[in-house]
Specification:
This is Oxidoreductase, zinc-binding dehydrogenase family protein. One of its GO terms (molecular function) is acryloyl-CoA reductase (NADPH) activity. The chain is an alpha/beta fold and about 325 residues long. The protein has two domains: about 140 residues, Quinone Oxidoreductase, Chain A, domain 1, CATH 3.90.180.10; about 140 residues, 3-Layer(aba) Sandwich (Rossmann fold), CATH 3.40.50. It has ten helices and 15 strands. β9, α4 and β10 form a beta-alpha-beta unit. α1 crosses α10. The longest helix is centred in the middle third of the chain and has 23 residues. It is globular and about 60 Å long. It starts with a strand and ends with a strand. The protein binds NADPH dihydro-nicotinamide-adenine-dinucleotide phosphate.
């Protein structure tokens, strides 16, 4: 038996989540079993903890799209008992049982090794949000962004992706402008390395002119919607936007003019199906460059019991930084 946060469907179509003992025979198929130490909370987890999202196919369900822990059984040639591992993505926690449990079973090719010098708790303080932020930084750099080029905009900055993106960009020597709708987070964002705070309202209006003054040397966008459309018109010549999220909406009410007249690039970032080599590249950079003391300041500690409440909060944009769930 192991402890898990189980979501069940009610008779009226709603859902309820509670911590229970579950038999190990209920685990999904897979060649590696992991004793989960830490998990975390992402926007998607908020959806999977409640009835929304359409991500979960079968109930009862154990959410948790990422976890870090120790291998306890393995039929995979890649992993041995005692190895420290990280899992993010591959639709674990959505279509399969995930990390909100003491035990998880997955396929070996989905795991990456915990980088040397990093703890499983730190790995989950980074989590899917932080991995995605790193993938976005790498994409911008691969498209030519270099320190000294000018301010790099981060939207949804006090969220999970935005907080880690702000810290990673600043640590790599970039000037960071952080967009937030919560002025009470200004000091927090400056502490992470933001040099400028841009109030959300300044970018909230829909596009009136397809091109505005050239402001940003790059952008990591967690918000999408009207804000992304506005930002495209403010990018400098040849600059890139890494599109990561849709916290403000999935529509893109933009024109193609910034692409045609300014050579702006819109780079899509997906963390879920990212090949293993790209994941390992990103985790290696995170281990080398993320200021872990700053990361600690973003951490909101939590237990499995806290997750139904926190899941509802993240869907309202009410969580700051990174929730780290101690599963043990
Ligand atoms: P969070 O909820 O932690 O952060 C989102 C932030 O966006 C909020 O903290 C808030 O920041 C801002 N925000 C919220 N609502 C609005 C709004 N209506 N308009 C403008 N800004 C808003 O989520 P995560 O950081 O975990 O994820 C961010 C997005 O990235 C989500 O859409 C998520 O699904 C996506 N994502 C995508 C991944 C991928 O592989 N592409 C992987 C991980 C996440 P503030 O209060 O500072 O304004």
């Amino acid at each position: 038996m192991f402890r898990a946060l189980v979501v069940e469907k009610d008779a009226d179509g709603g859902t309820g989540a509670s911590v229970r003992q579950v038999e190990e025979s209920r685990l999904p198929e897979g060649d590696v079993t992991v004793a989960v130490e830490y998990s975390t909370l992402n926007y998607k987890d908020g959806l999977c903890l409640g009835p929304g999202g359409g991500l979960v196919r079968d109930y009862p369900h154990v959410p948790g799209i990422d976890f870090a822990g120790t291998v306890t059984a393995s039929d995979s040639p890649d992993w041995a008992v005692g190895d420290k591992v990280i899992l993010t993505g591959w639709r674990v926690g959505e279509v399969r049982w995930g990390g909100y449990a003491e035990t998880a079973r997955v396929r070996g090719e989905w795991l990456v090794p915990l980088p040397g010098g990093m703890t499983t708790r730190q790995a989950m303080a980074v989590g899917t949000a932080g991995l995605t932020a790193m993938l976005a930084v790498l994409a911008l750099e691969d498209h030519g962004l270099a320190p000294g080029d000018g301010p790099v905009l981060v939207t949804g900055a006090s969220g999970g992706v935005g907080s880690v993106a702000t810290a990673l960009l600043a640590a790599a020597g970039h000037e960071v402008a952080a967009v937030t709708g919560r002025p009470e987070n200004d000091d927090y964002l400056r502490g992470l390395g933001a040099g400028e705070i841009v109030p959300r309202a300044e970018l909230a209006e829909t596009v009136k002119r397809p091109l505005e003054s050239e402001r940003w040397a790059g952008c990591i966008d967690a918000v999408g919607g009207a804000m992304l459309a506005r930002v495209l018109g403010q990018m400098r010549y040849g600059a890139s936007v890494a599109a990561v999220g849709l916290a403000g909406g999935a529509a893109l009410p933009a024109t193609v003019i910034p692409f045609l007249l300014r050579g702006v690039n819109l780079l899509g970032i997906d963390s879920v199906m990212q090949p293993r080599a790209a994941r390992e590249r990103a985790w290696t950079r995170i281990a080398a460059e993320l200021p872990f003391d700053r990361l600690e300041e973003m951490v909101v500690p939590a237990t499995l019991e806290d997750l139904p409440r926190l899941g509802a909060e993240i869907l309202q944009g009410g969580v700051r930084g990174r929730v780290v769930v101690d599963v043990t």
